[in-house]
Amino acid sequence: MASYISADELASIVGDPAKTPGVDYLIVDARDEDYQIGHIPGAVNVPAHDIRLRAGKLIDKYRAVPLVVFHCALSQQRGPKSARIYSEIVQARLETEQPGSPLAGQTVQVLRGGFVGWAERFRRTKPELIEDFDQARWDAM
Predict the structure, then answer these.
(1) What is the pTM of this model?
(2) What is the number of other CB atoms lying within 10 angstroms of the CB of residue 30?
(3) End-to-end C-alpha distance for the chain, whole angstroms
(4) Segment 103-125, tens digit of pLDDT
(5) Going by C-beta distance under 8 Å and a sequence separation of 6 or more, which residues neighbour residue 47?
(6) Cys-Cys crosslink for 51: which of 8, 29, 82, 140, Cβ 3.0 to 4.6 Å?
């Protein structure tokens, strides 16, 4: 089971100019249409219903990334489920990997509170931590 990361912990990573998304960390947003409300900068949108199909390509592309963080709206279902499936596929891959594979050192976490918690925490105080925020759609939720 994946561990959790707080919004503040993740914000310190995302906001660190020395860190690059897709290199130092990867954020996987497991939401569907609700991704259009806004998202964390640098996040990759992989809807939960597609994770089994797309996990292999994610693993291939981001195998050297040390931290992979999943989330959905609240990180209660889609995000944790996607993190679990991704982790299971990584574990299966590791059975055939060479010793010392960077994939072996990858940490998978889930954003506590999901995007809703993230947006509530930062949309007024640090709006740079949310891309493409749609206030009208947010208010309609």
Answers:
(1) 0.95
(2) 30
(3) 30
(4) 999 999 999 999 999 999 999 99
(5) 30, 31, 32, 35, 78
(6) 82
